Amino acid sequence: MASDRMLGEFLRARREVTSPAQVELLDVGLRRTPGLRREEVAMLAGVSTDYYIRLEQGRERHPSDQVIGALAEVFGLGPDATAYLYALAHSDLPPLPPAARPQVSPSLLRLMRSWDWTPAFVMNRTMEVLAINPLAAAFYGRGLPTELEPGDNMLRVLFLHPAAREFYRDWEVQARSRVAHLRATFAGDLDDPGLATLVEEMSDLSDDFRRVWARHDVGAERSHTKRFRHAYLGELTINCDMFSVSGAPGQQLVTLQPVPGSPSVSALAALRTEVREDDPSPGP
User: Fold this and answer.
1) What is the pTM of this model?
2) Which residue from 250, 182, 217 is spatially nearest to 78, judged by alpha carbons?
3) I want to staple 72 with a disulfide (CB 3.0 to 4.6 A). Which of 56, 82, 226, 238 is the partner?
4) 61-67 — which CB contacts under 8 Å span 24+ positions?
């Protein structure tokens, strides 16, 4: 990932999306590029303009924690983006040991299969699906439609599937959120070869991914609401929750539940009935 260049790229991207009004500066004179000027960032962070320029150009890659904290405040970074900025500034730390081959706990697999009211799947840090329960497989299989199964990648589905923009009603919001989550997930391991391979592949295949990745947004997805235009169930509003799996670093359990009191409840109930008819077994 060439993390030695990423600090400057991140600072430049954050500067370009931070307006003078956000930092209570008067917007005086024409600006050749959007966002703040370098000298404005330097003034607000309490460093010299020359020093800040060196940071953006990659000629100074190890700012102090005090400078990092000041820059995070200037750009209004949240906790995830601040942690990512600190990781970029300390990219000389030894890399994390290679992760073992991902395996989902048998007890978690049994639990997921028993949830015939809740679509759920487990994915790893690169958003590869490791396990999926029947209701989630039916949700995506009849909605996109595509057969979602272990080995598929949720990032590829979002950016490369021809029906994704129709399926995800707020596609741009979802695209930015998912890419920001990817950066946050790898904040402490930016040279992970799996991340490098995925980003290179996605950048080659999708102009939209390349555009969103260049924003350098950082923010882990947690509980959030998604709106779907489901090919089989119609308009849906779904609460999506993400949980880290204890004892399995990098694994996340994702659950989809209809917003209580919404028409999505009866729609998911109908899907559940069909799935039970297709597979009446109570599970393992």
Assistant:
1) 0.84
2) 217
3) 82
4) 61/4, 61/7, 61/8, 61/89, 61/91, 62/89, 62/90, 62/92, 63/89, 65/89
The alpha carbons of the chain give a radius of gyration, in whole angstroms, of 21
- pLDDT confidence of residue 133: 96
CB 119 within 8 A of CB 256: yes
User: What residue has token string 């759920």?
Assistant: 120
pLDDT at residue 97 is higher than 60: no
Mean pLDDT, the chain, integer: 89
Q: Are 88 and 72 in contact (CB under 8 A)?
A: no
Q: Look at residue 240 and give its three-state secondary structure.
A: strand
Please classify residue 201 by burial: count the beta carbons closer than 10 Å to its beta carbon, then call 0-12 exposed, 13-18 middle and 19+ buried: middle
Distance of alpha carbon 135 from alpha carbon 258, whole angstroms: 13
Read off the pLDDT of residues 126-165 as tens digits, 9 standing for 90 and up: 999 999 999 999 999 999 988 899 999 999 999 999 999 9
Alpha-carbon torsion (25, 27, 30, 35), positive or negative:
positive
Q: How confident is the model at residue 45 (pLDDT cuts 50, 70, 90)?
A: very high
Residues in the chain: 284
